[in-house]
Amino acid sequence: MRVCLVASSRFPIAEPYQGGLEAHTATLATALRARGHRVSVFAAPGSDPDLCVEELPVRRFHPSQAARADVGAHPDAWMQEHHAYLALMLDLLHHGHERYDVVHNNSLHHLPVAMASALSLPMVTTLHTPPLGWLESAMSLAPRTSAFAAVSRHTAQAWSHVVSADVVPNGVDTDRWRPGPGGDRAVWTGRIVPEKAPHLAIAAARRAGLPIDLAGPVLDQGYFADTVAPLLGADARLLGHLGTDELADVVGRARVALVSPQWDEPYGLVAAEAMACGTPVAAFARGALDEVVGVDAGRLARPDDVDDLARAALEAASLDRTEVRAHAVRHCSLDRMVRRYEDLYRRAGAPRPSSTVSSAVGTSA
Known about the structure:
The protein is α/β, with parallel strands linked by helices and 365 residues long.
């Protein structure tokens, strides 16, 4: 089976990952190859060559001065991303059937879905987010040869007015996210942006009497400067943007992991990663987090309620780390995810696994 995996991000697939989509893409591509598939990657410049995948280069687009003068012109970054996906889909239209058996669209861009009907290949699209306008428009016109996977029941339901999607929960590499000894501090990981609300995690940790470490990229400098930085101190440290191995060590040495979104999480990869390290989770009950965090692996709190998150943190901290890890192995394993995708590829029309998988990961801008 040969799969063309198209991922959407403006960031390279390289450590330290900018977010869960980049981490998921790298993990999936590596796991497919480990199961005997050949993997090709459509990726942004700077992606990790050690992924052992084939990068599909796309020439960057620079609008002419005349095009830039158009009063309705899109920003250059938007045009570069549009051009990259357009070039990829046209290449698949002409040559895809010679190289691939199925296209796995792991992106948030509308063009792969919009052009799916022109391909002689089946397409599987993973839904990583709540409905987005451009993507919803394309999906409403998707051909019957397209199949859809959602990363949680919550996300499948959010898209149910447009498409019917199989639920394929994200998986984590439980060999890499290994059990840790725990410790005295809480931990928060993720993109430092308002919708992830690390400031609420800091507040909850303080009310619970727990020092906390934060790790992740600062993607909203204004939010960080105005809301997060003033809260930092000896009991609330920012460790920076860490690679997977260093991050797994920090999470494994934490007493409890706090997950504090102010939006409905489509999945909650940071919770699965923490549980794989044996670190119990305290999270706001938003989006799919109640699907990911089992009662033997964490506690949920009322959304946006800092006092309730502090209560959940103290309750979760008393859970057996062995049981927390066991929950992750049972429900969040990489093998479980990959087998479901292989089954979905076959049901979408790809041949049995006597051939190879080619995966094109699109992170273009």
